[in-house]
C-alpha cells in the first residue's frame, strides 16, 4: 500500500509592515501594532531541505583574508565619519530620509567623487530620467568620466547593467521603484521590496561591489517596506533635517562595520551639499548685548559636541490655561521643567504663556539640555540676562536635583574653543575632569543652587 506524504500548512496571513505571520486574519499586527496591515499571503507549505555538496569549504578564521574588506574613502569626510572610515567592498548600505531632504544629491556627489578616484560607478535611477540626473549633476559639479547613468525600473534590466558595467560602486535610487517580473505585486510592495533587496544583496556579495540603496520613509518617519529590509542590509543610515533649514544630519542606525554613535553634518545649498566639520556656529545667535531668556548649552550628537542656544519668552495671559509652545525641544520635557521651576524654585509660571525654542532649527533631545532650558525660562521670568560667556548643561530631575551627565570634559573643551569662559555643570564625585587654563567651572547639585548662583 502506497504511503501518503503529508505537508504541514503554516500561517497564511502576513503583516505588510514587519512581516509578522498569523494563521487567521486580524485587524492589528501582533508585532508592530499597526492597524490594517495584515493581508492574505496565500498557503505556505513548510518543506525541509536536504544537505547538499559543499562548493566552498569553511575556512578557519585565522586563514580568512580581511584585507579585501578594508575601508575605501569616498572623498566625503562627513559620510566617511559616519560609516567608520569609508565604504567597505561588498557592503550594502540603506540610506533613508524624507522627500526633499537631499538623499539623491548626497549620493550623486559621492558617486562623482568615487568616480574621480578612478573607480567605475553605476547610478541606477527609477524616479528620474538620465537627462534630469545629468542636469542636477552639472548644477552641483558632480560629473565624472567613470560615472554611468541608467534609468531602469525593472530589476532584471538593472542587474544586466551591472553585468555590463562591472562597477565598484552601485547606487540604486530608489529600492522601492524597482520591480521583478518573477514576483507578483506592484513596485514598493512587500514581496517586491524583499525580492529586489535580496537580488541586489546577492549581486553585491558575489562581485564584492559596494551598494548604496535609497529608501523611502512613511509619514511617521520609519523606513517604508518590510522590516526585513533593515535586517538584510549591512548599514542603515538616516538622513534628516528641517525643511526650513539648510542643515542636514546623517546618522548610522545600524552598522556592521563601524560605530553607530557618529553624526555627519551637511549644508544643503543650491550649488550642492557640503560637509560641515564645525557646525556649532549655526546654532548660536549673534547679539551685541545680552538678552534675557537665552542660555547656551553643549549637546552631544553621537561623539560630536555641538554648541546650541535655547531661547525662552514668557508673556502674561488672562486665559484660564496658559499656553505652552516649543520648537526644537521635547514639549513634554519642557512642561516637566516648568513644573519643577514652579514647585521646587517657587517660580509662579501658571499665568504666563511660555515659548521655548532653539536657534537655527536644531533639535535637542538630550536630557543634558535641561539645565539650560530651566535657566533660560528663569532668565525670561526675572528679565535678567545671563552672562554672555556662560554655558550650562545638566539633567534636571523632578526633585529639582541636577544629575551628572557623560562627556563633561569634552563639552567644556568645545565651549572653551569657541570663546566661552564660564560653565555651570552638575556636581560629580570625580569632578569635571581636565579644565582648560582660564576657564571657570561651577558645580551645582540642585536647580535652586544654580538659580542662586546666577540671579
Automatic annotation (TrEMBL):
Organism of origin: Arthrobacter sunyaminii
Keywords, ordered alphabetically: ATP-binding, DNA damage, DNA repair, DNA-binding, Hydrolase, Metal-binding, Nucleotide-binding, Stress response, Zinc, Zinc-finger
Family membership: Belongs to the RecA family. RadA subfamily.
GO cellular component: a single term: cytosol
Region feature (Lon-protease-like): 353-455
Function: DNA-dependent ATPase involved in processing of recombination intermediates, plays a role in repairing DNA breaks. Stimulates the branch migration of RecA-mediated strand transfer reactions, allowing the 3' invading strand to extend heteroduplex DNA faster. Binds ssDNA in the presence of ADP but not other nucleotides, has ATPase activity that is stimulated by ssDNA and various branched DNA structures, but inhibited by SSB. Does not have RecA's homology-searching function.
GO molecular function, one term: hydrolase activity
GO biological process per UniProt: recombinational repair
Claim: RNA-binding is one of the keywords in the record: no
RadA KNRFG motif (motif): residue ranges: 254-258
Gene designation per UniProt: radA
Protein name per UniProt: DNA repair protein RadA
InterPro entries, per database record: AAA+_ATPase (IPR003593), DNA_repair_RadA (IPR004504), P-loop_NTPase (IPR027417), RecA_ATP-bd (IPR020588), Ribosomal_Su5_D2-typ_SF (IPR020568), Ribsml_uS5_D2-typ_fold_subgr (IPR014721), Rubredoxin_2 (IPR041166)
Domain called RecA family profile: residue spans: 68-217
The keyword Mitochondrion is assigned to this record: no
Domains (record comment): The middle region has homology to RecA with ATPase motifs including the RadA KNRFG motif, while the C-terminus is homologous to Lon protease.
Positions that bind ATP: 97-104
